[in-house]
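User: structure tokens for this one?
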Amino acid sequence: MPASLTAAQRKALQAQNRAIMELFESRGFEHIRPRILQPADVFLEKSGEDIRSRTFLFTDPDGQQELCLRPDLTVPTCRYHLAVAEDPRREAKYCYRGPAFRFHGMNDPLHADEFEQVGLEWFGHGNAAAADAEVLALALEAVRLAGLVRPYVMTGDPGLLRALLDSIDMPQRWRRRLFMRFRRPEDFRATLHAMASPDDGGRTSASNLVDRLAEAAEAGTEEAVALVERELETRGLPLVGGRKVEDIAQRLLEKAQDRRTPPLSRETVALVEDFLAISGPMHTCAAELERIAERAGAPMERAVAAFTERLALLPEDGGMEFATGFGRSFDYYTGFVFQIEADARGRSVTVGGGGRYDDMLAGLGGPDVPACGFGLHTERLLMAAGGA
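Assistant:
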């Protein structure tokens, strides 16, 4: 809780958070208290670059494990569910209230290093579209309960891009490469256009090595690794940045494979760029997405049908915006995402957000389980609602 809050503001914050938690519990969400200390590797792998750079990291006294102060409560709730649920695949609904930690290094109550978060997570639901709609409706009900009259809501869906890429004839490694660059628009477009450009045939020592790796790859990955090891030894080059010989060999093998892969067509590039240009009111965007699906094919058609189903279940959008290029700061989201913004102390800030993350439990060693949820930054919410 920011030290800048007065006693009256702290009391108002406690009342606000208590009312929100009562709302969540009244809708069937169990109040839990996940651990503050968490294994760092989970957050470093699952979080986006911005969150990773702000995570408080340290090593346990024995020097055996890297730990962190939780930067949010979604991952800790997932770990809690896997630890206590008799069958993690069965439906479970949790809500929480507690501190989260992200380094900002500023004397700014809107960007405090420690802040309180309230939120909820829903695992194992039967209908994804209905769950997405209910979670967003609950988030909006919570911020309005706190006194935020006109929140601005931005939405997106990384799952649509994944479906579009699945509709296009390209190697899986290219799909993975593009999706990893989704939240870096300039990098994404540069990669997309590089995939549409045939190799210019320029010969360098590096490209010659790639050619030799291509030949070695036909004999198996072990041959490629051995070739890289010999090359590093011959050139006297050390390994840096924790990279392994196997990682270098794999990267170069992919370059060799890329040279043998036909480039993307101009029509394909235009299709992806037309998709990424879609933004505006949600209902308007639905029609544009349907036109993209007609050009793309079955995977995209199914994804757009799911988008339309969810749209019909959402609360009256009241100006909710959608953009195909919108994604949140965490890398673990797989589908529908939303962010709630408001003015606080003369600035626009994010007071909450969430979405769908169906790969999370499996990535933590559990079964495949559909999941969605959201978190609210309670101090920002109080300030935006006029209570501080």
